[in-house]
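Appendix B, record 7
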Amino acid sequence: MPEGMRPASLVERREFYKSEFNLVKVAEWFQGRSGKTKFAVIMGRHTKIFQVEYEKDRDTTIIIDEYSDLEEVRKQILDFLPEAVYYDRNVYDKNDQPVGQELAFDVDPENITCPVHGTLAEKMKRRQGLSFCEIELDLARQQTVGLFEYLENQFSDLQTVYSGRGFHIHVFDQKACLLSCSERIKIAAQVKTNGFSIDTWVTEGEMRLIRLPYSLHGLVSRVAIPLKKKEIGKFNPIKNKKCIPKYLLNGA
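Structure tokens (predicted):
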């Protein structure tokens, strides 16, 4: 991992979600979204850090869909103290049937071929599938800049999020939400053909969950934050204080 990035302890997760998790910003993210949003948590699949009472569910994706407001979602997160918090990109009707899905693109550093560490396949052979270095992180950022510009030719409402490790580009155009499965597969293939390293299963819709903006990425101790287009080019998550939780800034 790049310098300063490390797993968050249970105490640090509690501190973050109790005092730093910005529900106002979370509400703004979902402004204009129809239907009730479903959230999800994973306790300790990658970090192996979890509360003893949740040992049997440490690898389980637990859905949070029964809540009255975002404050109640926070309370449930504080109960679980997960390594990761997601939201469901599917849009549901009043009968809880999916009627669309927010289109997204996921650029992760481990998918980048690194001049030092090689391809993802080579990293996997060394059991380093989730590890990444500063070079890969910066190459992922450059890919995100190019992908954003590429997508601007097709869509008008785009938002980039630094996810904690890599970058997500969300498409909020209504036409994108209503794309069929085959259309999503075609778009993912086109993006790959144009040289961008994305996790195709996210774009294709196979993976409907995506990291919740303003949540803590517990594997690397970074906050997932939205970025304006002009910010992406110079964004350095290793040093940028906007994405570093207070427990690290305070020297913990």
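Remarks on this record: The chain has a mean pLDDT of 93. The longest helix spans residues 134-151.
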